[in-house]
Specification:
By secondary structure, the chain is α/β, with parallel strands linked by helices. The protein contains six helices and seven strands.
Length: 198
């Protein structure tokens, strides 16, 4: 098996949103999903949780595949936090409805952790954005859930999709809310010798 071109890294994610964000920067990467337990530990603070999950994904892919060619691994994890409660991916439509009802008319945090792993070195960071939702009617929530978009999305919404209409204010990183804060990601990649546009 030939070695990947210089500047290539592994992306430890199956998220099409993260792939699209990296592709728009023209970066070279190989997708290799990480198989880890994404459960929240009892009493674990949100920032610590999202950082641990991103680091675990990077370490899993490094151990499994990336060390063969000795190229860095980039991983990320995104959570939605309302007060002290972490809103993960909804298990079904009923849970998606419940999450959106809680987010309606309120401000919440979106935390995305980015981790890079290469050999014995690992660096990570957490980027936090504040997102405010307008007051949503029951019909708006039901129609949005029926679209199927909330499935597999933290907090049961996708800011890059129809839920963009729900957002009355955003403070922070749009790409971070999508799933990968590009400014911070480029900064980490450069620390590992990978050229980026910024």
């Amino acid at each position: 098996m030939s070695s990947p071109p210089a500047g290539t890294f592994y992306l430890a994610s199956q998220s099409p949103r993260r792939r699209e964000l990296l592709q728009q920067l023209g970066l070279r990467f190989i997708v290799q999903a990480a198989d880890i337990d994404e459960s929240v530990l009892p009493g674990e603070p949100a920032a610590a949780c999202v950082r641990r999950l991103a680091e675990s994904k990077a370490q899993a892919v490094w151990s499994d595949a990336a060390r063969i060619h000795s190229i860095p691994v980039l991983a990320a994890d995104t959570i939605v936090v309302l007060g002290d409660v972490i809103l993960g991916k909804p298990r079904d439509n009923a849970e998606a409805v419940a999450m959106l009802q809680r987010l309606s008319g309120r401000q919440h945090q979106v935390m995305t952790a980015v981790a890079l792993c290469h050999e014995e070195r690992q660096e990570s960071l957490v980027q936090t954005s504040l997102v405010s939702f307008a007051k949503l009617s029951s019909l708006q929530i039901q129609q949005y859930v029926a679209s199927g978009e909330p499935a597999d999305k933290a907090g049961a919404y996708a800011i890059q999709g129809r839920a963009a209409a729900f957002v009355s204010d955003l403070q922070g990183s749009y790409s971070g809310v999508v799933g990968l804060p590009l400014h911070e990601t480029c900064r980490l990649l450069r620390q590992f010798g990978i050229d980026t546009p910024l």
